[in-house]
Amino acid sequence: MRMMKRPNILLTGTPGVGKTTLGKELAQRTGLSYVNVGELAQEGQLFDGFDEEYQCPILDEDRVVDELDDKMKEGGVIVDYHGCDFFPERWFHIVFVLRTDNSHLYSRLESRGYTGKKLQDNVQCEIFQTIYEEAMEAYKEEIVHQLPSNEPEDLERNLEQIVQWTEQWMKDNN
């Protein structure tokens, strides 16, 4: 496999932590391409049924991986999704898990129309660091980083940090 010229980055975390906002802005600042897995699945109908309890389609993880594999081999991709343990470990050079305080998260999810069990489960997921632990099990610990995502200042700080990391990676690997 030839050396990639640009890194692959995973942005993950509970729904509502700011992955999409960060991912789109990061793509603009770095020139990397941005993939929102939820949108990709919607466009390609990469689903495996419907979850009545959560009122949402069930992602067909194998088809998503097949769909993205060639693009990931080329490098230069920012992937945004709230799950992470089904992506191949070889895909990512770095993984950022966004974390949000529950007071912020609750209101963000409520404003998206989340209610009942779906709202409670997502807030609990954040409390128990579920996505962070999933990332720590799925990838090498040294590439997994937590980033606070509460205030607009956090977004700017996170962008600067990831842009710096990306520039350094490209210097070191080209």
TrEMBL record:
Check the record and name the InterPro entries matching this protein. Adenyl_kinase_AK6 (IPR020618), P-loop_NTPase (IPR027417)
Give the primary localization class: cytoplasm
Q: Where in the cell is it found?
A: Cytoplasm; Nucleus, Nucleoplasm; Nucleus, Cajal body
Q: Which residues bind ATP?
A: G16, G18, K19, T20, T21, R112
Keywords assigned: ATP-binding, Cytoplasm, Kinase, Nucleotide-binding, Nucleus, Ribosome biogenesis, rRNA processing, Transferase
Q: State whether keyword Cell division applies.
A: no
One GO cellular component term, please give it: Cajal body
Q: Which GO terms describe its molecular function?
A: AMP kinase activity; ATP binding; ATP hydrolysis activity
Chain segments carrying region LID? 111-121
Q: By its UniProt entry, which Pfam families does this protein fall under?
A: AAA_18
Task: Tell me what reaction this enzyme catalyses.
Answer: AMP + ATP = 2 ADP; ATP + H2O = ADP + phosphate + H(+)
Biological process GO annotation list? ribosomal small subunit biogenesis; rRNA processing
**Enzyme Commission number:** 2.7.4.3
Taxonomically, the superkingdom here is Eukaryota
| Region of interest called NMPbind, as start-end residue ranges on this chain | 36-59
What task does this protein carry out?
Answer: Broad-specificity nucleoside monophosphate (NMP) kinase that catalyzes the reversible transfer of the terminal phosphate group between nucleoside triphosphates and monophosphates. Has also ATPase activity. Involved in the late cytoplasmic maturation steps of the 40S ribosomal particles, specifically 18S rRNA maturation. While NMP activity is not required for ribosome maturation, ATPase activity is. Associates transiently with small ribosomal subunit protein uS11. ATP hydrolysis breaks the interaction with uS11.
Q: Which family does it belong to?
A: Belongs to the adenylate kinase family. AK6 subfamily.
Question: What PANTHER family has UniProt attached to this entry?
Answer: ADENYLATE KINASE ISOENZYME 6, POS9-ACTIVATING FACTOR FAP7-RELATED
Q: How does it assemble?
A: Monomer and homodimer. Interacts with small ribosomal subunit protein uS11. Not a structural component of 43S pre-ribosomes, but transiently interacts with them by binding to uS11. Interacts with COIL (via C-terminus).
The entry's protein name is Adenylate kinase isoenzyme 6
